[in-house]
Amino acid sequence: MFISFILLFSQIVSATPMTSVIPKGVQDFPCKQTIPWEQHPTMDIGENCKYEAANAALPPASDHRVIYFGDSLTEGWTNRIVGITNDDVLNRGIGGQTTGQMLVRFRADVLNLKPKIVHLLVGTNDIAGNKGPTSIARIQDAIMSMCEQAEAHGIRVILASLLPAKTIPWNDSIKNSAASVRTLNQWLRNYAARNGHVYADYESVLSDGQDGFIRGLSIDGIHPTAAGYTAMIPVARDAITRANIE
Predict the structure, then answer these.
(1) Which of 88, 106, 113, 218 could form a cystine bridge with 62, CB 3.0-4.6 A?
(2) pLDDT per residue over 83-137, tens digit each?
(3) Distance from first CA to last CA of the chain, Å, rounded?
C-alpha cells in the first residue's frame, strides 16, 4: 500500500507543469513571477503587481495629480476620467477587488504616487460577496482607513457614492444589495461632510429611482455603459473642482 502511494505521488508530481511551481517568500522581484488567477487569493492578495511597472515608470508627481482608485467600476472608466487638467490623471482600478484588497495596495497605488487628490469608488464587490461574508461595519472600516491614510499624507479625498446595484448578476444569492447600497451611500455622504472630504453623488445621475440604473446607462445593472460614464463626468468634474479649491 505504501509503495503504491509513493508511485501515485511521483506520477502526480511528474505530470505537474514546472510553470505551476511558484517561488514563495521574499523575492528581489516578486512581480516577475507569474501567478495564475486562481491563486491570487493566497498570493499577491492585493494584486500589487498589476500596476508595479507602470508606477515605477511614472515621472515625479505634478502638483495636480489625481488618482482614481477602486474596482472594475473605476478600471472600466479608462481614459474618460477627468482631472484638474488633462494630464497627470491616473486610473488605478482593479476589477473584482474588495475594500480589504484595496487597503493592501493603497500605499503602492496611491500614497507612494503622491497625488493631490484621490477619488475613491469602492465597496460594490464587498456587497457582492466576492471574498465571502462581510458587514457594513467592515466596509466602513476599510474606507475610513484609506481616508485617514490619505489625509495623513496631505491628499484630498473624494468619496464617490456606490453606483446602483439592484441585483448582483454574478451572485444571485445576494438578496439585499440595494439596501446595502442605500445604507453605505448615506454613510459616505455623512462621513464626507464630517471629515471635510468631497462627496461625488453618481447615484443621482444614474439611478432610475427604483434602485437600478436608468435604461441604457448600464451593461449588466452594475457596470456603466459608455453613456453611463459620460453621465458621470460632470459629477466627477465638479468633485475634482471642489477638492482642488476647498
Answers:
(1) 88
(2) 999 899 999 999 999 999 999 999 999 999 999 999 999 999 999 999 999 999 9
(3) 75
- Reduce the DSSP state of residue 155 to 3 states and report it: coil
Closest CA to 72 of 95, 101, 102: 95
Give me the phi and psi of 123, to 5 degrees please. 115, -20
**pTM, to two decimals:** 0.87
Q: How far apart are CA 233 and CA 243, in angstroms?
A: 15
- Please give the CATH architecture assigned to the domain spanning 63-245: 3-Layer(aba) Sandwich (3.40)
What sign does the CA torsion over 75, 94, 236, 186 have? positive
In eight-state DSSP terms, residue 142 is H
**The C-alpha cell of 219 is what?**
451593461
Q: CA–CA separation, 55 vs 109, rounded Å?
A: 7
Strand order in the sheet with 117-121: 89-93, 66-70, 117-121, 156-160, 198-200
